[in-house]
Every structure is written in C-alpha cells, then in structure tokens.
Design goal:
The protein has about 90 residues and is mostly helical. It has a single domain, classed as Helix Hairpins (Orthogonal Bundle), CATH 1.10.287. It is built from three helices and no strands. It is rod-shaped and about 65 Å long.
C-alpha cells in the first residue's frame, strides 16, 4: 500500500489528532483531500475504499452544516445592523 493510502487510512473520527473538540471546516477539507488522494491510489482495497468514502460523506455533510450555520449568523448580523441603523436614523 502506498504512503497516500496509508495516510488517509486513519480510523474515522471527528478529529484526526484525538482532540475532543469538533473539526473546523478547514480541517474537514484537509481530511477530505487526504481521503481523495487515498481513493485515487490504485492499490487500495475495496473495504478501505468504502470506509474512506463513508468518512468523506460524513465530513462533507458536517462541513455543509457548519457553513449553513455561519451563513445564517452572517445574515442575522447584517439584519441586526440594518435594524440598528434604521432605529438610529
């Protein structure tokens, strides 16, 4: 098995380093890059491919949730600022 497949073959978890805090969007994207590199390796076994694919899907969904929450927060901040200006003006 080549080095890329071994590096991405870490057991699925919310954190690669064992830290208990949730992964950020950026951390999830870096993990997804490693997963894609491993899946591109020609000598990866089917079971490992499936496990990595499943982990990748979890990271994509979690990143989508994080981005949606950030978008909502930005919208709320903009609306609050608009209301503040209207009340002051």
């Amino acid at each position: 098995m080549d080095e890329r497949a071994r590096a991405a073959g870490d057991p699925p978890s919310s954190r690669d380093d064992g830290d208990a805090r949730p992964m950020s969007v950026e951390e999830r994207l870096r993990r997804l890059d490693r997963i894609v590199a491993a899946l591109d390796a020609e000598d990866i076994e089917l079971e490992q491919s499936l496990a990595l694919f499943e982990e990748g899907i979890r990271h994509v969904r979690a990143a989508e949730r994080l981005l949606s929450a950030a978008e909502l927060r930005v919208e709320e901040l903009i609306e609050g600022e608009t209301r503040r200006r209207e009340d002051a003006g």
